[in-house]
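Sequence in, structure out. Go.
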Amino acid sequence: MDVPLELSSYTRVLKLASTPDREEFSQVALIAGAGILLVGLMGFTIFVVMNALPP
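Output:
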């Protein structure tokens, strides 16, 4: 485990990284929110179906 080599690769990645602009951030947030809602809806649907079935 070569620590100086790892640190230099981390700094290289951080130099290449840039902050997203407002449009890109809002698009990513919208897609992530839609994914969260979809997973929650699927979970709720499974919950309702499991409660509707007779024991």
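Check: The mean pLDDT is 90. The radius of gyration is 22 Å.
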